[in-house]
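Throughout our pipeline, every protein is held as a single compact record rather than as scattered files. The record that follows is passed on verbatim for readers who wish to inspect the format:
___
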Amino acid sequence: MLQIWGIKSIVDTLIDGTFSGDEHNLFYDIYRSLVQGNNGSFADPYLLLPDFESYVHTCQQANSLYKDNQDEWNRKAVINTAKAGFFSSDRTIESYNKRNLAFEIKIIIKPMAFCHGLLFNI
């Protein structure tokens, strides 16, 4: 499936007690969803496993950037946050409100101070 080493061993940690101690079945539903599918559905319906190698690579790049150049990492983090935009759940709630409730929604943006890579409310 993936070229990344150990993807099976990574998925197996969901049922081998790595994260659940003696409760080996605690994450079995997630494991089954990824490997076998649930209730007649396809395995891994959100296609997490095919993207896992890219996810790991991107995490490694972000970690390296943070270690080597925290100023650049901070700049990218702020830009990424600023470009995140309006979340789909926000749009859904706003749309429902307009159709059914007619409440006025006000978005309040507080000014922030950027100091040494940290954001503070002011």
Summary: The beta strands are 112-115, 118-121. The CA atoms of residues 75 and 119 lie 12 Å apart. The radius of gyration is 21 Å.
